[in-house]
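Input.
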Amino acid sequence: MRRLLGSISMLSAFATAAVVQAAPSEQTFMVRTTGDLADLCSYNSPTDPMMTASANFCQGYIVGVYHVLTEVEQARTPKPAFCVPNPPPTRNQTIAEFVKWARASPNDSALPAADGVFKFFVGRFPCAAKP
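Output.
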């Protein structure tokens, strides 16, 4: 029985280790790619002080890109590239969707980070066609 419990504990430890994401490095914060940004946005080790830095950087980066894009898109004619609904989804919900989207395609993960955020917004928040 002890051997069985020991084996289960060891398998549990290996399974947990397989899903633990490595702590972000200084290079990760350079967010050269959409994948780098997705990594920062998904880092959630509550005992690591880098979690707060990662979450704050992620939210600040995406919100900053969002504000620049909405200003640019409002000036575009005849129609913007994306239209966020009113009321908008929560920031955390949108970031979780961004991470899932970025990880679903290696091509999108390789995009420059701001380009990836733009592509995500265009796909996630398409504008309704006007009759």
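The chain has one domain: 23-124.
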